[in-house]
Amino acid sequence: MAAWGERLAGVRGVLLDISGVLYDGGEGGGAPIVGSVEALARLKRSQLKVRFCTNESQKSRGDLVGMLRRLGFDISEGEVTAPAPAACLILKERGLRPHLLIHDGVRSEFDQIDTSNPNCVVIADAGEGFSYQNMNKAFQVLMELENPVLFSLGKGRYYKETSGLMLDVGPYTKALEYACGIEAEVVGKPSPEFFKSALWEMRVEAHQAIMIGDDIVGDVSGAQRCGMRALQVRTGKFRPSDEHHPEVKADGYVDNLAEAVDLLLQHADK
Amino acid sequence: MAAWGERLAGVRGVLLDISGVLYDGGEGGGAPIVGSVEALARLKRSQLKVRFCTNESQKSRGDLVGMLRRLGFDISEGEVTAPAPAACLILKERGLRPHLLIHDGVRSEFDQIDTSNPNCVVIADAGEGFSYQNMNKAFQVLMELENPVLFSLGKGRYYKETSGLMLDVGPYTKALEYACGIEAEVVGKPSPEFFKSALWEMRVEAHQAIMIGDDIVGDVSGAQRCGMRALQVRTGKFRPSDEHHPEVKADGYVDNLAEAVDLLLQHADK
């Protein structure tokens, strides 16, 4: 047992990242990470509250949950905090009409949003949709606005698929920021508002919650800056250098979700 | 006549940007900017030395010059300082084998370069070649290197074609820098080494030279930081806000190359 296991005392709620923690995406939908299906089942049988906090923006919540259920995970749509629905709330509140640079798989989340005569841009992980033509169109929309507003659904650098590391939305957001001389508003991790909405949905205070993720910046640092604890798993996009990150230190590092759940069930209620 | 015309006294050599100063690119090769063909001819008939200093990285120097000659410009290949040949010299000096994320139009410049088993990446204005797949491949090459080295042929934000503003290489360089946590080495404007090589080819000292360009950062600020004077033309990618840039002030602003040449011929030898 890791000596830092004692730092888990008093945890009442667990926020779980999905990609790289539950499964690795890829051709044919991806594959569960070994032990994660069973670990989630054990966690959900415990006293701990569980919620999923993801930056997944290629799929609608419905499609994501359907895929995970087919892989064997016990998860329902209402348990997932995801950036596309959060962005829709913001767009409605502020009366904004977006030009959407997004994956077709998540387009249905924006069905109720007016996209005519756009006055902002929403960028998400568009994958192959990040063609030069599509990037240039988003750039031109922004350059024509007097006050260009860009929303980025997460700002991850890359993620891991079964075939290797893949560019996430963050690099493309940086590209538009540089091209237009602006700064994007991030909707998703590591935005504090996003973590707070997940905590609120779980009805748990930050100091009683722990984030489990594979991203040292988006998951670990983001959660810690909200007053939560955070574990990094050595799966997904984890790289050994993460354990010597110059600015971020997780409350603990575990080999995978199964080890995280073992430790939580052993220490959380102490 | 602009009052600042007196600042042109003592100029002996003129460095000319190409895109946005001589012509605007676009479908069918683009079009000369009104008055530029004749202005260049007058400049070359004068006592002033002239050299072209471009970040063009979609075309080989030969193709660029051929296109400009067809548009009526008096220009030859030996008069052009361009980033691809400069990059080839650096690659050879340092024994580097690049993965090339470049436009097919400039590939011939790298004919003599070993690209097997790459140990660095060269990114240039690839245009439509900036597909997700090509960006991801360059990213993966960099992530597999122990000391990732990225050369960027220029770092422009965008340029103007006859159809509108187009993303240049800079945003895509920023994307790879962010994805990999590295900083690119710029070959081209505004790198001081690049301006210095153009001055050396022209055999003129920095304080006797003036840069004429449409880019307030890449052309004007870059040249000034080398000890040169710099004029910005109100053609190409120029935007009115450039004249109130928070950090950069050109030695003068002119409507186009024709006005710049008028003023130079009037004041340079005073």
Structural account:
2 copies of one chain form a homodimer. The first copy, chain A, is an alpha/beta fold. Chain A has 2 domains: 152 residues, HAD superfamily/HAD-like (Rossmann fold, 3-Layer(aba) Sandwich), CATH 3.40.50.1000; 105 residues, Rossmann fold, CATH 3.40.50. Chain A has 8 helices and 14 strands. In chain A, the strands form 4 sheets. In chain A, strands 5-4-1-12-13-14 form a 6-stranded parallel sheet. The first copy, chain A, has a 4-stranded parallel sheet with strand order 6-7-8-11. In chain A, strands 2-3 form a two-stranded antiparallel sheet. In chain A, β4, α2 and β5 form a beta-alpha-beta unit. In chain A, α1 packs parallel to α8 and α4 packs across α5. Chain A is globular and about 55 Å long. The model of chain A has no long low-confidence stretch (mean pLDDT 95). Chains A and B meet through α4, β10 and α5 of A and α4, β10 and α5 of B.
What is the top-level CATH class of the largest domain in chain A? Answer: Alpha Beta
Helix content of chain A: 25-40%
- Name the shape of chain A in a single word: globular
Number of strands of chain A: 14
User: Which whole number gives the mean pLDDT of chain A?
Assistant: 95
Compute the separation of the termini of chain A in Å. 15 Å
Classify the fold: give the CATH topology of the largest domain in chain A: Rossmann fold
> Uncertain runs of chain A with pLDDT below 50, 5 residues or more?
none
CATH architecture of the largest domain in chain A: 3-Layer(aba) Sandwich
As laid out across the biggest beta sheet of chain A, the strand order is 5-4-1-12-13-14
- Identify the CATH homologous superfamily of the largest domain in chain A: HAD superfamily/HAD-like
Largest interface: A-B, 31 and 31 residues
Strand composition percent of chain A: 15-25%
Overall tally of domains of chain A: 2
Following the backbone from N to C, one meets helices and strands of chain A in this order, namely EEEHEHEHEEHEEEHEHEHEEH
User: What is the count of DSSP helices of chain A, taking H or I runs of 4+ residues?
Assistant: 8
- Multimeric state of these chains? homodimer
Class of secondary structure makeup of chain A: alpha/beta
Structural Rg of chain A: 18 Å
What kind of sheet is the major sheet of chain A?
6 strands, parallel
